[in-house]
Amino acid sequence: MKKLIYILYIFILLGCEKVIELETDFNDKRLVIDANISKHKDSLNKKAFVKLSETIPYFSNEESIVDNAVVSIEINQKIQVLNYDSQNKEYISDINFTNDNDEFVLNVKHNNNNYTSNSRLIKTPKIESVVFGERKSLNKDEVELKVTFTDPPEKGNYYLWKFGPKKSGKFDYLPALDKYINGNKFTFSFFIDKTEYLQNTDYINIEINGITEDYFNYLNILTSQAGAQNGRPFSTSSSVIKGNVINNTNVENFPLGYFRVYEFDYFRLPKEDAPDGYFD
Q: What does pLDDT average to over the chain?
């Protein structure tokens, strides 16, 4: 009798299994604009890169790349149309007829909507040196990089540091400001994960971009929201973060993303400069 009860109990449990399908509403499709014009600090020529996509449902695996827009940059009443690069899935163009103090106007036309934004070049200091440090981290896999640069004397400089590539092909980013170092030569430490770096390459690329205060704040909000939802896919939805691009056709249907014009410098640190045993 007891055996029969056990069998019946197992049968009931198995019989109650049911696949639950989540139905999620998704009505807020928006254009996502990642637009950049950049130049090396020692170069006169600039390059424009614009990536366009559309927001997609949380659980979707489909690509949302937009390849049928008309994208242009206007400088001093001259218009430069960007061409779509199907390999890199972005709109690109050389921008060579400008001065550093010019205003750059982005225009994107897509699905009967006209999106615009304007920006000016933000300059950046030179990276003077990057070396491997000797300080240890609580994480045994982390290695110290010591980065030196001189901040310009003007107050209110903001930077975006970029470190990589990692073995995934992605990069680490560090927004920074000159609040306590204004006008001084400064060395700071950045710790990298040796299991992620120098796996597929023989170098680490360290890059500095000049950014605006608005973009600095925008990045910090994005970072805080991403951290708040990390590992919690069913947490309360974060608020939508507006960038600096507007929809002139329908203000309520504003896009996501940002347009920036910046100067950059970079330093390439070879693996062979690492102390013996660092990446064994």
A: 86
